[in-house]
Design a protein that fits this description.
Blueprint (H helix, E strand, L loop, with lengths): L2 H25 L3 H31 L7
Helix pairs in contact: 1-2
Length: 68
């Protein structure tokens, strides 16, 4: 597995985790838990944006990684 594909796999996993956290926040009735899930989802979003930036950088440096 190449570095490019590993980074893209990680990005997909992060997006899945973020979606799960957002879903948990919507489903819970506990306000403390809701805030915790929302905060974790926001933190994950920041990481997703950073990793997406790295993916773009990889694709620009190594065109063979595009589309994986």
């Amino acid at each position: 597995m190449t570095v490019g594909s590993q980074v893209k796999t990680t990005l997909a996993s992060l997006k899945s985790a973020q979606a799960s956290l957002e879903s948990f926040a919507l489903e819970t009735q506990n306000q403390e838990a809701k805030k915790m899930f929302e905060s974790a989802a926001q933190t994950t979003q920041t990481v997703v944006q950073q990793v997406e930036s790295r993916v773009q950088q990889l694709e620009n440096e190594e065109p063979q990684f595009k589309g994986f």
